[in-house]
Amino acid sequence: MTRVGETELLPGGKPLKRVVFSADEIRARVEELGDEVSRAYDSSEGVLVIGLLKGSFIFMADLVRNIRLPVSVDFLVASSYGAEKTSSGNVRLLYDPEASLRDRDVLLVEDIVDSGHTLNELIPQLMARRPRSLEVCALLHKRVARLDREPRWVGFDAPEEFLVGYGLDFAEDFRHLPFIGSI
Ligand code: IMP
Ligand code: MG
């Protein structure tokens, strides 16, 4: 990163307010999450890990490498549409997992829980496919949402700031930063 006076600049020149979670902190926490997930499931059946794109792609890649169980991987793309950028509560599946959820232990991986609309809308839709179990592992949780069901695993409680990096974007940039920063 370049630096102008005291301010670090992200690629492209946008100022970084601060590093919120360093790459080392993230790595250590993702290892712990992988251990916890590995202990929670039946080791013969394994788990179907479904990443919510795009934000979860880096977290998901690191998480599954720390799970010592049979793992199948799939993704889903959800889009919230309606009023403006604040997710209005209308969440539509744009890409649907090919894997059948029926009678599987399903772990949904999310980058960050903010308003909670995404999870509140998606969980009933996925439950309708009759998985044996459905749990959520979220890397970050801003703890402002009124969730119908809390994620079973959370990496970090996040400050109410706009965060980028490690999968999180601002206008589609900064997902590739190895740390999580606020802008
Ligand atoms: P929710 O439905 O409001 O919980 O929205 C969650 C989604 O909003 C996340 O999956 C992110 O894509 C996005 N989001 C929420 N907060 C942030 C942030 O601080 N930085 C980047 N994306 C965010
Ligand atoms: Mg997202």
User: Which structural category do the helix and sheet elements fall into?
Assistant: alpha/beta
- What is the CA-atom radius of gyration, in angstroms? 17 Å
Helical element count? 3
Separation of the first and last Cα atoms: 14 Å
Secondary structure layout plus pairing:
Blueprint: E1 2-4, E2 7-9, E3 15-16, E4 18-21, H1 23-40, E5 47-53, H2 57-64, E6 71-81, E7 90-95, E8 105-113, H3 117-127, E9 133-141, E10 153-157, E11 163-164, E12 180-182
Parallel strand pairs: 5-6, 5-8, 8-9, 9-10
Antiparallel strand pairs: 1-2, 2-3, 4-12, 6-7, 11-12
Helix pairs in contact: 1-2
Brief account:
With 183 residues, the chain is α/β, with parallel strands linked by helices. Helix content is 20%, strand content 35%.
Notes on the structure:
The strands form three sheets. Strands 7-6-5-8-9-10 form a six-stranded mixed sheet, sandwiched between helices. It has a three-stranded antiparallel sheet with strand order 1-2-3, with no helix packed on it. The protein has helices at about 25-40, 55-65, 115-125; strands spanning about 1-5, 5-10, 15, 20, 45-55, 70-80, 90-95, 105-115, 135-140, 155, 165, 180. It has a domain at about 40-80 and about 90-105 and about 115-160: 3-Layer(aba) Sandwich (Rossmann fold), CATH 3.40.50. It has about 180 residues and is α/β, with parallel strands linked by helices. The radius of gyration is 17 Å and the shape is globular. A hairpin with a 5-residue loop joins strand 2 (about 5-10) and strand 3 (about 15). Helix 1 packs across helix 2 (about 55-65). The protein has three helices and twelve strands; from the N terminus they run ββββαβαβββαββββ. The structure holds inosinic acid and magnesium ion.
